[in-house]
Amino acid sequence: MKIPVENIVELTVEHQFLQAYPILSQLRTDLTLKEYLDLLNEMRKEGKQLFALYHDTSIVALAGISWREDSYNERYVYVQDLVTDVNHRPSGLGYNLLSYIHNWAKEQGAEYITLEA
């Protein structure tokens, strides 16, 4: 039996964004491909980032993040649009992605992370 390889990366180039669209569209069902690409351009200008969990060569989970600062001047990471592909729920892959982002954020100096409800 082949054990799948998991890899988590920040998406930074157009072919990755195109690969991520089918997963994000499961959460944001009203978002067309053009609207999604336009939104990504605006988000990236604002410093927002998109992370994906690959299961072998396919994206199966996504999360968008942005850096924020609270009233105590503590920097934190705000996680939004966390979604796992419907065919991989409830496999724990979304949890793995969120855990990775938590550890990554701490390494980058975040005091904490918060998740959009």
Automatic annotation (TrEMBL):
- Output this protein's name: N-acetyltransferase GCN5
The N-acetyltransferase domain extends over 6-117
Q: Which Pfam families match?
A: Acetyltransf_1
Q: Which CDD domains match?
A: NAT_SF
- Please name the SUPFAM superfamilies in this protein's record: Acyl-CoA N-acyltransferases (Nat)
Gene Ontology MF annotations: acyltransferase activity, transferring groups other than amino-acyl groups
Q: Which domain of life is it from?
A: Bacteria
